[in-house]
Backbone:
């Protein structure tokens, strides 16, 4: 007996590719006035809390076949005891800044699951709109949140997971270690 509702990995990656490409063409961040339509943006794929970078390999390869440059970023808190949301946000910002500031690239940030939280914190001041207003090249032109947290300024991770940690979670009790710093 087979489950007709279960998708094989190839179908899932095709669906994700279609989702990302649809987001690129329909995003308010990607209107011709805000993005260089002669070049495609670099897509930065960021994994969730329980994944390593390689989980994005197939999606990254499909996007590259479609002509996009991609980067994949795992989270430093994966197998990193004592690290926090702030550490993940800093590591992601360290990846984004050279692409945007030094190379002037337009970037779409694809955030899966927990990555929505540090990803949202990492982008402050890097949007295409903000950078263009300062006469600077490059910037974040789109955000794709896939089954992800979409925090607002001042949100905490604990608040977003219902106000308390699950029994299996080991909280970092440092104040502000889970506050969005965007």
Residues:
């Amino acid at each position: 007996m087979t489950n007709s509702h279960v998708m094989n990995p190839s179908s899932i990656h095709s669906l994700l590719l279609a989702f990302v490409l649809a987001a690129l063409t329909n995003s308010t961040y990607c209107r011709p006035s805000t993005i260089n339509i002669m070049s495609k943006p670099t897509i930065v794929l960021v994994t969730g809390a329980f994944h390593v970078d390689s989980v994005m390999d197939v999606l990254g390869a499909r996007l590259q076949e479609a002509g996009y440059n991609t980067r994949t970023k795992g989270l430093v808190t994966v197998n990193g005891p004592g690290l926090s949301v702030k550490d993940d946000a800093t590591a992601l910002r360290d990846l984004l800044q050279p692409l945007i500031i030094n190379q002037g690239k337009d970037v779409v940030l694809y955030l899966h699951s927990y990555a929505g939280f540090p990803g949202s914190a990492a982008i402050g001041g890097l949007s295409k709109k903000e950078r263009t207003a300062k006469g600077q090249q490059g910037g974040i032109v789109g955000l794709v949140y896939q089954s992800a947290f979409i925090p607002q300024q001042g949100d905490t991770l604990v608040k977003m997971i219902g106000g308390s940690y699950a029994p299996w979670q080991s909280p970092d009790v440092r104040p502000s270690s889970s506050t969005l710093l965007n």
Notes: The chain is about 35% helix and 15% strand. The helical segments are 9-26, 57-65, 85-102, 116-122, 128-133, 157-160. The first helix runs from residue 9 to 26. Residues 1-9, 25-37, 174-182 have pLDDT under 50 and may be disordered.
